[in-house]
């Protein structure tokens, strides 16, 4: 019998860079002594042996390619379906990450118990025992009679079981503990994670299986492992908790089948994660007393508006150098707004400490909150309280102009639905027919906006 030759390579365990031979220094990431020899698999192995079907690719005209909508099926959760772009797509690969205790395994267990009613599912656990998972399911009151479980860390063994069970949904919890025989390194290493994910992805694409992989995060809350892991998957989801740990925020950072930065909101209860249908309501729990420096703005998260409270506190600097601190906002954006406020608004804050907070743990990723932040700072500086019924949004330019933002009318209607009766918005966002019950004040520059609240 002919001896099968094995192909080897040298891979950096930090960044995943591949080299033809060993060297002490990785030129890609700058690390030393991180390049290890790994076994890449039998030399000359065909794509079919690697997990692909035997069919060869053919050249096609782009106009001849079918562009029919991808068939989807629901996950059983409206919020999760929203984040995914409408539900699960057969053959898609989903990576979900988050801090320990965020609820990744919980939401997946709930989802699999729902999907198992109509489809074959296989939940592979490499971290928890089956007894632990069964105890959690019992505590949450889930129907588990059709959910197939497997405690395994070997990729080859998982694919063998999947080949016989033929699941339509496959969960890997987690990809960092999986290992493949083709790589001689410990589980969790860059090369091991990359090859394990690649092998599982090939299986999912070839067989039309929905593959969901759980990923660990580093101490700075970014996904652990090689960057190629993010490029490999179709959808990447991050699950985080709010400051009071009562709610979980699910956001997409990559999605080939839907909108990016879509936000799903869940409440952590004794029965597991429960979706929040109206997230604006939970972020608007304001005190009855009116205090300076507090305003409501409307963010656009994926495909829907979200009302959030923005608070600002401006006090005289106590230690010489003024502090600028933002929670939920980019500090560089706050510094720019303060410069514009000084230059074009005539409000001097160079000797003041400025603190800005987005209530509820929401992270502002767009510029529509600029005007609300600016007016909240001015309100705190002048100690002028603003009405609870005031809504503000708009982008602030470096020359002091107030620029319109997308979906302005939808933002105003969301505010009207929650009882807001006055809005300060860019002139470009003032609807021609107005919004019933809302007095809309259109402003074109910073001075007009300050005049509208300070008089």
From TrEMBL:
Keywords: ATP-binding, DNA damage, DNA repair, DNA-binding, Hydrolase, Metal-binding, Nucleotide-binding, Stress response, Zinc, Zinc-finger. Transmembrane segments: none annotated. ATP binds at residues 98-105. The keyword DNA repair applies. The keyword DNA-binding applies. GO terms for biological process: recombinational repair. Pfam families: AAA_25, ChlI, Zn_ribbon_LapB. Residues 69-217 form the RecA family profile domain. CDD domains: RadA_SMS_N. GO terms for cellular component: cytosol. Residues 353-455 are annotated as: Lon-protease-like. SUPFAM superfamilies: P-loop containing nucleoside triphosphate hydrolases (SSF52540), Ribosomal protein S5 domain 2-like (SSF54211). GO terms for molecular function: ATP binding; ATP-dependent DNA damage sensor activity; damaged DNA binding; hydrolase activity; zinc ion binding. PROSITE patterns: RECA_2. A motif (RadA KNRFG motif) lies at residues 254-258. The middle region has homology to RecA with ATPase motifs including the RadA KNRFG motif, while the C-terminus is homologous to Lon protease. Belongs to the RecA family. RadA subfamily. PANTHER family: DNA REPAIR PROTEIN RADA, DNA REPAIR PROTEIN RADA-LIKE PROTEIN. Plays a role in repairing double-strand DNA breaks, probably involving stabilizing or processing branched DNA or blocked replication forks. This is DNA repair protein RadA. It comes from Geomesophilobacter sediminis. The gene is radA.
């Amino acid at each position: 019998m002919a001896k099968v030759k094995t192909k080897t390579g040298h891979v950096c365990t930090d960044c995943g860079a591949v080299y033809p031979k060993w060297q002490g220094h990785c030129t890609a990431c700058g690390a030393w002594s991180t390049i290890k020899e790994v076994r890449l698999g039998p030399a000359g192995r065909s794509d079919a042996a690697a997990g692909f079907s035997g069919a060869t690719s053919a050249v096609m005209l782009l106009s001849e390619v079918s562009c029919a909508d991808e068939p989807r099926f629901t996950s059983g959760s409206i919020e999760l379906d929203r984040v995914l772009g409408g539900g699960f797509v057969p053959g898609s690969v989903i990576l979900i990450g988050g801090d320990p205790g965020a609820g990744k395994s919980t939401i997946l267990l709930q989802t699999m118990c729902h999907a198992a009613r109509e489809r074959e599912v296989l939940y592979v656990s490499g971290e928890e025992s089956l007894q632990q998972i069964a105890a959690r399911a019992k505590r949450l009151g889930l129907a588990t009679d059709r959910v197939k479980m497997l405690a395994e860390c070997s990729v080859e063994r998982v694919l063998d079981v999947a080949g016989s069970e033929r699941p339509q949904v496959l969960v890997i919890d987690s990809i960092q503990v999986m290992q493949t025989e083709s790589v001689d390194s410990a589980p969790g290493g860059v090369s091991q994670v990359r090859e394990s994910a690649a092998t599982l992805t090939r299986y999912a694409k070839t067989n039309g299986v929905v593959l969901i992989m759980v990923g660990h995060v580093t101490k700075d809350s970014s996904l652990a492992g090689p960057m190629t892991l993010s490029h490999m998957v179709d959808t990447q989801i991050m699950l985080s908790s709010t400051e009071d740990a009562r709610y979980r925020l699910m956001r997409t950072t990559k999605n080939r089948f839907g909108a990016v930065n879509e936000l799903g909101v869940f409440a952590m209860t004794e029965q597991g994660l429960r979706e929040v249908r109206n997230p604006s309501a939970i972020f608007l729990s304001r005190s009855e007393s009116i205090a300076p420096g507090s305003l409501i703005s409307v963010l656009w998260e994926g495909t829907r508006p979200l009302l959030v409270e923005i608070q600002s506190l401006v006090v005289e600097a106590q230690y010489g150098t003024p502090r600028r601190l933002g929670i939920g906002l980019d500090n560089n954006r706050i510094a720019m707004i303060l410069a514009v406020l000084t230059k074009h608004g005539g409000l001097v804050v160079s000797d003041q400490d400025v603190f800005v907070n987005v209530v509820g743990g929401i992270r502002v990723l767009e510029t529509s909150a600029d005007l609300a932040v600016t007016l909240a700072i001015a309100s705190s500086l002048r100690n002028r309280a603003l009405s609870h019924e005031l809504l503000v949004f708009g982008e602030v330019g470096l020359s002091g102009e107030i620029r319109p933002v997308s979906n302005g009318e939808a933002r105003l209607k969301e505010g009207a639905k929650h009882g807001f009766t006055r809005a300060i918005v860019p002139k470009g966002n003032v609807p021609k027919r107005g919004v019933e019950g809302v007095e809309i004040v259109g402003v074109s520059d910073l001075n007009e906006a300050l005049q509208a609240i300070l008089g």
